[in-house]
């Protein structure tokens, strides 16, 4: 049965709003606040993340007020846009998934890894329409797949094809800039599969007529990374430790209370609490230090993209890890 055209309209509105927010945030410098000369820490975030929860809690503002530091929050549609803003000095820190972080390093952007989240393999997936009768990843051979350049879910697509005995050349990628455009392409039938991440993946899974063909289990840890620039981290380590201390508190709460996380974020995201609770239950929000194992995971991802010709040169991921701990 064809999908109703309005089924994903809340997601489309959500991501269009995120794109507009990312453009606006690029105009904001690190400077003295006009009203009272207090410094402002500019944080980039995407929908559905521990930073998003921290924003909703108001805890960071309270913790930094005694230091005379204010906080401004800048929403982005996806990791590539956030990292572009970070590299140009439009924001001071933010988060992005594994693949956008590698692509930023490949592009020579001066971003560094500060910390990582726990694995989140079920938070990415390859979504298809039931009416197209695609039963496995092998059935994607010769099909058009909507994905984004440098998306975490693009990496899932690449390694899932490899596991199925196929290559990236066996599909035709249709590159889009956000999840809304990917879903619209699937609805129209111009592509036969899309790569998505939570909460948009969880929303798709809840829609009649759609199914998750393959998630990241056993293929990708799909970590979120917290990033800044070395120059900012060098000058503001104490500030970053406060940030991660408050982030840790809300992360512990979020891990214990997925239903309350859903209730907090649903009004902000325009997505149902049921969808958000599903996404939150399969996620571990805790931030951890960058370990050699995590570096190895990222190196494998970088090498995979280089092998596909999507990254032009060999990267050394370890070179982009900030050398000092900023975790409390």
Strand order of the largest sheet: 7-6-8-5-9
Global structural class: alpha/beta
Tell me the CATH architecture of the largest domain: 3-Layer(aba) Sandwich
How many helical stretches? 13
The percent range for strand residues is 15-25%
Helix and strand run: HEHHEHEHEEEHEHEHEEHHHHEH
Number of strands: 11
CATH topology of the largest domain: D-Maltodextrin-Binding Protein, domain 2
Structurally, the number of domains stands at 2
Gyration radius, in Å: 19 Å
Protein name: Putative aliphatic sulfonates-binding protein
Pfam families: NMT1
GO cellular component, one term: periplasmic space
Function: Part of a binding-protein-dependent transport system for aliphatic sulfonates. Putative binding protein.
């Amino acid at each position: 049965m064809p999908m109703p055209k309005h089924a994903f309209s809340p997601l489309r509105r959500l991501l269009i709003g995120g794109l507009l927010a990312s453009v606006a945030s690029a105009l904001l410098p690190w400077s003295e606040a006009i009203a009272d000369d207090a410094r402002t820490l500019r944080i980039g975030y995407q929908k559905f993340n521990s930073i998003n929860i921290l924003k909703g809690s108001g805890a960071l503002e309270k913790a930094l007020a005694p230091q005379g530091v204010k906080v401004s929050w800048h929403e982005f549609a996806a990791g590539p846009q956030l990292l572009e803003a970070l590299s140009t000095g439009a924001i001071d820190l933010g988060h992005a998934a594994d693949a956008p972080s590698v692509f930023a390093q490949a592009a020579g952007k001066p971003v560094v890894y500060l910390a990582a989240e726990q694995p989140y393999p079920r938070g990415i997936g390859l979504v298809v329409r039931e009416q197209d009768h695609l039963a496995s990843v092998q059935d994607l051979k010769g099909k058009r797949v909507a994905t984004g350049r440098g998306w975490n879910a693009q990496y899932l697509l690449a390694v899932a094809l490899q596991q199925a005995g196929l290559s990236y050349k066996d599909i035709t990628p249709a590159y889009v800039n956000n999840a809304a455009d990917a879903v619209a392409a699937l609805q129209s039938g111009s592509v036969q599969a899309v790569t998505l991440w939570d909460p948009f993946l969880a929303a798709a899974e809840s829609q009649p007529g759609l199914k998750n063909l393959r998630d990241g289990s056993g293929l990708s840890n799909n970590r979120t990374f917290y990033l800044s620039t070395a120059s900012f981290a060098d000058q503001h380590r104490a500030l970053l430790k406060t940030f991660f201390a408050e982030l840790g508190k809300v992360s512990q709460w979020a891990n214990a209370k997925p239903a309350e996380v859903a209730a907090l974020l649903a009004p902000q995201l325009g997505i149902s609490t049921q969808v958000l609770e599903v996404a939150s239950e399969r996620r571990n929000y805790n931030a951890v230090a960058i370990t050699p194992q995590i570096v190895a995971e990222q190196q494998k991802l970088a090498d995979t993209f280089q092998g596909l010709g999507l990254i032009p040169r060999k990267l050394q991921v370890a070179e982009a890890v900030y050398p000092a701990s900023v975790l409390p």
